[in-house]
Amino acid sequence: MSLVGKKAPLFNAPAVINGEEIVENFSLEEFVGKKEVMFFFYPKDFTFVCPTEIHAFQEKLAEFEKRGVQVVGASCDTEETHLAWLMTDRDKGGIAGVTYPLVADSSKTVANNYGVLAGDWNYNDEGQLVFEGAPVAYRGTFFIDKTGVVRHETINDLPLGRNIDEMLRIVDAWQHVEKHGEVCPANWEEGKDAMQATRDGVSSYLASH
């Protein structure tokens, strides 16, 4: 079930912040009323596609910050594994230089609450509790507004890396809506015409295009 239009599930979990410091009780609640949040899940530390996405978010971090958006990543790895990966040089498969928070969801409850866990616990024929599927998170991305409500989500399967520029476009579109009270048509980008959410507004937009 989609979280769009609903309050983002809150949590308290360990995280690594500033690329070097472990905190035990990180929460998105600290940003409510202050910043929008781009919260993304990735499957696993020390893998192949994941670091390309993590570095891509870092490379665009100044663009998110310019828009007042906090980037936060998460996986089902431990905070110690996050820290070890952050301490590993990029040319050795690491993510050294990443400064935004990485949440450690080793209990898998955060991924489960956001609907991105790639498997689930179940009982087999012998009555034993087993995990079916992959005990990692899909590539879920959630844009959360300042009130803590999810305004956009995408969930990619494990092999499919996401487009970070599209995440910035979503931010621009939402902030345009908030500022101008207009709605954004297909393929809208910053600087393009938007639309009034009325029949006359739609008609005038279509007539000019």
From TrEMBL:
Q: Has keyword S-adenosyl-L-methionine? A: no
Listed Pfam families: 1-cysPrx_C, AhpC-TSA
Q: Which UniProt keywords apply?
A: Oxidoreductase
Per its UniProt record, what CDD domains does this chain match? PRX_Typ2cys (cd03015)
Enumerate the spans annotated as Thioredoxin domain. 2-176
Coiled-coil segments: none
Reported function: Thiol-specific peroxidase that catalyzes the reduction of hydrogen peroxide and organic hydroperoxides to water and alcohols, respectively. Plays a role in cell protection against oxidative stress by detoxifying peroxides.
What family does the database annotate?
A: Belongs to the peroxiredoxin family. AhpC/Prx1 subfamily.
What name does UniProt use for this protein? Thioredoxin peroxidase
Q: Which organism is it from?
A: Marinoscillum luteum
Output the lineage of the source organism: Bacteria, Pseudomonadati, Bacteroidota, Cytophagia, Cytophagales
